[in-house]
C-alpha cells in the first residue's frame, strides 16, 4: 500500500535547489555515457597541486581487479578541507561541537581549525609519524577527533579509526592487522551521561603481545577521570601541542596514496580493513555531499553518526569540510537527557540539514510527541536517512513529526566499501516513495542479477551489483588484495557485488531489501554472524554456536544466538548473563545477543553444514513452513529446537 504513495518534489524546493529533475536526468546521462569526460570535469571540485591528466583506469576483471582514479594528480586532503576556505571563510564556523551535556558546546572557525590541525600535525611529526604510517584513533565525539583525522591527512599518515564502543579485544585486532604505530585516545568518553573508559581499554588492548607495533599513546584530557600511565609511551595531547608551530606545510599526496583504513564486517572471518585512497574518495565525498544534501552557503549541517563509522568519515568530516560547510559534531545520543534532545539540538543550532539513522528515528517514534515537545524545528530544510532500510512507517513519522511535511527525505544507500552515497534521491529532483532509496547518483551504474549472475532488466528483484567503478570505491582490503577480489568480484564475475538484495520498480526506483549474505545490520551497525559465533565459541563452556538475525522493532535486526554447551554444563540463569557479558567483552556492547537459545544440538546436513534457513525460521516462530528437512543428519533436532524455543527468554 505505502508503495503507492508518492511525494512529488515541491515547486519551491525544486526552484531553489542546486538541481531539478531535468538537470539530474541530463547530468546522469552524461555521467554514464562518458564517465571519463564527466569526472574529468567534476574532479575540479577539489584543488589539485598537480592537475591530473588521467581520469579513470579501472578493471573488474577476475584476477586483475585494479581501481585507479585521477592517478597522476596530486593534492592534500586537509588543504582541501581547510586551507582553501581561509581567504573567504576563515572566520566562519567549521565545526560546532555539542556536548553530551546540553550546557556544553563550542565552535571552531576555519582559522581555528587550521591552527589546531597544524599544531597537532606538527606534534605527530615530532613523535616520528611519517607519510604512510598508520595511526589508530580510538576517540570520543569531540572536535579533536576531526582534528586528528585532518592532521593525519596533512602529513600523509593513514588513519584507522576504531569505534569507541568496541572492546579492547576488537581494538587490539585492528591495531595488529593495520600495524598501527600510534594510538590516539582520550581519558574517557561521555555518552548519555555515562563515562566510557577509553584509555583503560587501550591499556588493556596493548597487553596483547602482538600490539608491539604501537610506540606511543596520545591521550586527550576529556573528562579528567583517573587513568593509568605508562611513562615513555603515554603522552598528553595538550602537552605535545602546547609549543607546536601553528604552521604545517601540507604534504603533496598522489591521488592513489592511501587515505584511511576502516574495518568492517563481512560474512566470513575477521573484519576487513577497507582501504580508501586520497583523490577519488575526496572528489566523491565532496560531490555527493553537495548534491545529495543540496548544500548551500549558510546551511548548518548535522550528521548524527559517530566518526568510527564510514558515515562519520564521509559526511561528518570530509564531505562537509571540503565544501566549506558548518558541520555539527555531537558527543551524545539522540534521547539524552530528554527524549526531545535531537529536536532541541536542531533548534539550538538552527540546523537546516539533518542526517540520521532509521534506528534513531524508530526509537524516537516510539515516544510519539515527546520526541518533539517544546521544539519548532523550523530551520530544517532537508533530512537524510542512512545505515539500513527505513520502513515506510518510520519514514512517514520522520517526514511528518520531525520535518513538518516540508523537508524532502534523502534515503541514502551506500556502504563502507563505496566511500560515498550510491543510490539516493536528490532534494530538488526526485519524487519520493517512502522506503525507497530511489535512483543512482551520477556515475553510478547499478544492476540486478539473478543467482547465476545474469543481469535482469525491468521491474524485478535480485542481487544488487555495480557494473562499473566510481571514484569513491574502495581500492583493496588492507594487506590482502586477494580477499578483496574474492569478497566483491568473484560471486558475479566482472561486477562489484554489494551483498545486498534489491527490487526495482516500474519507475526504475531501487528498494533495498537487506543483506543476502551472513551479515547482520543491528541499529545500522554491520556485524558478521561468523564474528559473533567465534566470540561465543571462545567461551570455555560453549561447544557450538549459530547466530541469525531476527526482526527487531527499534534496532531493525536483533541477534538471536543458538548455543550448545559442552557436555556436563548446565544452562543456568547465571551462565545466561555470563555469556551475554562475554560477547560484550569480546566485541563490544553492540554485539550483545538479544536472545540466547540453549540448544541441545544444531540442525546439520550429513556433511556437517549448519542449516541456517531452519534456524532463521525457528527464531522468528515461522515453524509452519520449514521446508525440506530430509537432508538433515538427524531430523529430530528440529522438533527439539522448537520445544526449546518455548523456554527461551
Ligand atoms: C545497509 C553504512 C537500506 C546495506 C553507510 C549496506 C542500507 C550496509 C542503507 C552498509 C539504506 C546502508 N537503505 N540499506 N539507505 N544504507 N544500508 O558499511 O545493507 O556500515 O550493505 O555503511 O548497510 O553498511 P555500512
Automatic annotation (TrEMBL):
The modification N6-acetyllysine is found at residue 609. Residues 531-609 form the AMP-binding enzyme C-terminal domain. The keyword Acetylation applies. CoA binds at residues 191-194, 311, 335, 523, 584. This is Acetyl-coenzyme A synthetase. Residues 83-466 form the AMP-dependent synthetase/ligase domain. The keyword Iron does not apply. Its EC number is 6.2.1.1. ATP binds at residues 387-389, 411-416, 500, 515, 526. Belongs to the ATP-dependent AMP-binding enzyme family. It holds the Pfam family ACAS_N. GO terms for biological process: acetyl-CoA biosynthetic process from acetate. PROSITE patterns: AMP_BINDING. It catalyses: acetate + ATP + CoA = acetyl-CoA + AMP + diphosphate. Acetylated. Deacetylation by the SIR2-homolog deacetylase activates the enzyme. Keywords: Acetylation, ATP-binding, Ligase, Magnesium, Metal-binding, Nucleotide-binding. It comes from Motilimonas pumila. HAMAP family: Ac_CoA_synth (MF_01123). Residues 24-81 form the Acetyl-coenzyme A synthetase N-terminal domain. Mg(2+) binds at residues 537, 539, 542. GO terms for cellular component: cytosol.
Amino acid at each position: 500500500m505505502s508503495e503507492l504513495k508518492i511525494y512529488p518534489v515541491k515547486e519551491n524546493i525544486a526552484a531553489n535547489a542546486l538541481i531539478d529533475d531535468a538537470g539530474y536526468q541530463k547530468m546522469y546521462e552524461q555521467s554514464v555515457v562518458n564517465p571519463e569526460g564527466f569526472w574529468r570535469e567534476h574532479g575540479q571540485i577539489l584543488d589539485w597541486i598537480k592537475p591530473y591528466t588521467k581520469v579513470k583506469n579501472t578493471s573488474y576483471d577476475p584476477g586483475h581487479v585494479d581501481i585507479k582514479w585521477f592517478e597522476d594528480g596530486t593534492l592534500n586532503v586537509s588543504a582541501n578541507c581547510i586551507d582553501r576556505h581561509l581567504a573567504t571563510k576563515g572566520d566562519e564556523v567549521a565545526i560546532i561541537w555539542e556536548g553530551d551535556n546540553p550546557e556544553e558546546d563550542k565552535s571552531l572557525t576555519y582559522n581555528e581549525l587550521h591552527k589546531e590541525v597544524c599544531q597537532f600535525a606538527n606534534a605527530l611529526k615530532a613523535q616520528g609519524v611519517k607519510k604512510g604510517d598508520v595511526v589508530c584513533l580510538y576517540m570520543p565525539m569531540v572536535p579533536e577527533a576531526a582534528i586528528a583525522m585532518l592532521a593525519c591527512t596533512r602529513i600523509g599518515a593513514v588513519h584507522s579509526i576504531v569505534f569507541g564502543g568496541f572492546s579492547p579485544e576488537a581494538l587490539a585486532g585492528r591495531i595488529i592487522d593495520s600495524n598501527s604505530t600510534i594510538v590516539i585516545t582520550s581519558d574517557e568518553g561521555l555518552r548519555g551521561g555515562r563515562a566510557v573508559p577509553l584509555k583503560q581499554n587501550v591499556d588493556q588492548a596493548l597487553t596483547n603481545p602482538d600490539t608491539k607495533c604501537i610506540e606511543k599513546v596520545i591521550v586527550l584530557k576529556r573528562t579528567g577521570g583517573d587513568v593509568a600511565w605508562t611513562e615513555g609511551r603515554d603522552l598528553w595531547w595538550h602537552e605535545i601541542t602546547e609549543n607546536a608551530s601553528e604552521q604545517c606545510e601540507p604534504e603533496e599526496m598522489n591521488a592513489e596514496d592511501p587515505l584511511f583504513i576502516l574495518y568492517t564486517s563481512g560474512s566470513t572471518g575477521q573484519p576487513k580493513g577497507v582501504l580508501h585512497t586520497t583523490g577519488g574518495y575526496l572528489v566523491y565525498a565532496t560531490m555527493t555531499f553537495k548534491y545529495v544534501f543540496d548544500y548551500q552557503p549558510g546551511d548548518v549541517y548535522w550528521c548524527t553518526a559517530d566518526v568510527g563509522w564510514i558515515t562519520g568519515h564521509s559526511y561528518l568530516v570530509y564531505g562537509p569540510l571540503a565544501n566549506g560547510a558548518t558541520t555539527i559534531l555531537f558527543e551524545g545520543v539522540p534521547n539524552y537527557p530528554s527524549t526531545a534532545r535531537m529536536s532541541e539540538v536542531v533548534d539550538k543550532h538552527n540546523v537546516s540539514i539533518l542526517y540520521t539513522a532509521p534506528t534513531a528515528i524508530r526509537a524516537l517514534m516510539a515516544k510519539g510527541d515527546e520526541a518533539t515537545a517544546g521544539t519548532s524545528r523550523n530551520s530544517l530544510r532537508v533530512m537524510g536517512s542512512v545505515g539500513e532500510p527505513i520502513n515506510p512507517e518510520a519514514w512517514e513519522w520522520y517526514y511528518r513529526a520531525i520535518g513538518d511535511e516540508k523537508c524532502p527525505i534523502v534515503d541514502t544507500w551506500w556502504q563502507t566499501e563505496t566511500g560515498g552515497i550510491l543510490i539516493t534521491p536528490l532534494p530538488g529532483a526526485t519524487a519520493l516513495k517512502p522506503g525507497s532509496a530511489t535512483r543512482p547518483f551520477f556515475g553510478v551504474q547499478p544492476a540486478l542479477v539473478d543467482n547465476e549472475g545474469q543481469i535482469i532488466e525491468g521491474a524485478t528483484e535480485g542481487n544488487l551489483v555495480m557494473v562499473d567503478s566510481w571514484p569513491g570505491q574502495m581500492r583493496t582490503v588492507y594487506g590482502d588484495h586477494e580477499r578483496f577480489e574474492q569478497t566483491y568480484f568473484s560471486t558475479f564475475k566482472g561486477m562489484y557485488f554489494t551483498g545486498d538484495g534489491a527490487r526495482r520498480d516500474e519507475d526504475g526506483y531501487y528498494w533495498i531489501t537487506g543483506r543476502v549474505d551472513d551479515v547482520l545490520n543491528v541499529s545500522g551497525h554491520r556485524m558478521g554472524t561468523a564474528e559473533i559465533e567465534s566470540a561465543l565459541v571462545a567461551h570455555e563452556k560453549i561447544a557450538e554456536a549459530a547466530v541469525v538475525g531476527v526482526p527487531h522493532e527499534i534496532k531493525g535486526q536483533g541477534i538471536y544466538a543458538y548455543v550448545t554447551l559442552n557436555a556436563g554444563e548446565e544452562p543456568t540463569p547465571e551462565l545466561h548473563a555470563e555469556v551475554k557479558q562475554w560477547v560484550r567483552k569480546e566485541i563490544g556492547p553492540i554485539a550483545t545477543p538479544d536472545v540466547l537459545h540453549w540448544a541441545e544440538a544444531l540442525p546439520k546436513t550429513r556433511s556437517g553444514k549448519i542449516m541456517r534457513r531452519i534456524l532463521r525460521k525457528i527464531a522468528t516462530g515461522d515453524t509452519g513452513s520449514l521446508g525440506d528437512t530430509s537432508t538433515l543428519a538427524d531430523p529430530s533436532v528440529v522438533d527439539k529446537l522448537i520445544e526449546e524455543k518455548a523456554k527461551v527468554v
